[in-house]
Amino acid sequence: MLDPAHGGTDEGAHGSGSIVEKDVTLVLAEAIRARVLRDGWQVLMTRQGDDTLSFAQRAAMANAQAHAIFLTLHVGSSGAAGTAYACYYDFGQLAEATPPVAGGLLSWETAQRPWEPYSRRLAQLVQGELATRLPGSSEQPAGAPLYQLRAIDEPAIAVELENVNAADEGALTALAAPLAGAIAHALVAFRASYAAEVH
Amino acid sequence: MLRRKAVALAVLAVLVISGFLYLPALYRRVVGLRHMPLSGQEERRAAIEPPISTPTDVPSKAELFWESKSAPGTIIPAEVELKLSADPVERAKQLLAALIAGPADPTERTLPPDATLEEFYLLPEGTAVADFSSELSTHLPSGIQSEEMAVESIAGTLAANIPDLHRLKILIGGQEAETLAGHIDLTGYFLLPPPALAATSVSPPAPSLPH
Ligand SMILES: [Zn+2]
Fold first, then answer.
1. What's the mean per-residue pLDDT of chain A?
2. Do the Cβ atoms of B73 and A95 come within 8 Å?
3. Confidence (pLDDT) at B96
4. Which structural domains are found in chain A, ordered by start?
5. β-strands A70-75, A2-4: how paired?
6. Is the ipTM beyond the 0.85 threshold?
7. String of b and e for A160-174 (b: at least 16 CB within 10 Å)?
8. B190 at interface of A, judged by CB pairs closer than 8 A
9. What 3-state class would DSSP assign to B127?
C-alpha cells in the first residue's frame, strides 16, 4: 500500500519556492509504483489524485488488505538536500509504552505496536539502499513517533525525501528513480524473511 | 471625624497632583528606553537571556540543543551561559525561552522564533508538562525530521539541565494535540532523557539543584 502523504486541503510542507509537498509525494508514489510492479507486487495507492484523506481513512484502507506492507511518502522541510530517510514508529521514545486497555477494547491507535520489529527491519533495509543511492543519507533509519503510523496494522514505514526548499520540483522528482530503486530492492529483501516468519 | 476626613482628602489631593507632575517625566523615560540603541553584544544577550528572573538565579552553563551545522537533520548540544533559577519550574521556563530565542546562527534553530511557552507544570514523579502557544505548531517547518528535531531539542534541553525529569508531555495552546505540525505524535509522553540523544551529551547529567 503506497500512501502519497497529504493531499487536498492538507498541502503538507511548503518550500521557500513554489514546491508543495502533496504534489511531489504523488509523483514519487507513481514512480515507486511503476518500479515495484516489475517485482511482482500488487500495488494499491491511498490516493491517485488531489484527495483529502484523514490518517484514519488511510489506515483503514491499509488495514483492509491482508498481508500488506504500508509505505507513506513525505517531503520534509529540513535535512541535507537530496538525502532521504526511512522512519518507523519507535514506541521506545514514549513513556508508558503499553497504555491501559479498558474493557477488552483493542486500541485502534496502537495497532502498529506488534509490528514494530518488522517495520524497523524494513526501515533498516530501505535506509541501507538509500545510503548507497542518495549520497549523504544516513546508514541508519530513524525511529520516530510518527502519528500516522500508529494505527497501521501491518509493517509500516515512512520515507521522507529532503527537502521542499529545492530550487524547483524537478530537482526532487529527479530523485524518484533512485528512491524507487532503493525501495524496490529493500522490499524484495524484506519479503523473503517476512514471508518465512509471518505467513 | 470631619477633621480626619479633611486630612485624608488633602493627602489624596497631594498624591494625585504629584502623580500628574511625575507623569511627563515617566513618559520621557519610557520613550527614552524604547529608543536606546543596543550594541550587537547587548542585542545577542537580550535575545538569549530569558526574560524571567527569580531571586535564586545564578549564572550557569546550560546545555541547549539546536540543529547541527555539520550534520543537518540532527541536533547537538551547545554550551550557553544563562542565569538559571534553582526552582525547577522557573528554570524550565528560562531554558525554554532561551531555546526559542535561538542560537547565534538562525539556521541552527529548531523552534519558530515567535512561539512562546505559555505555561510549564511539574507533576509528581518527574513529569514535565510544557504548554506552548499555537505558533509552535503553525510556524514550525512541517516534516518528520524537522518536527522530530523540535521535540528532541525541547526534551534534550530540559533533561540536560533539570535533574529527575522522567517524561514530557507537550501541549499546544492548552490542549492535547494529535501532532506537532502534521507528523510527530504528541498524544503520548516523551521519555526523558530522549533515548536518541543518550550518546550526544557533552557533559554528565544535570547536577542536583540546591534545596
Ligand atoms: Zn509530510
1. 92
2. no
3. 98
4. 2-198 (3.40.630.40)
5. parallel
6. yes
7. bbbbbbbeebeebbe
8. yes
9. strand
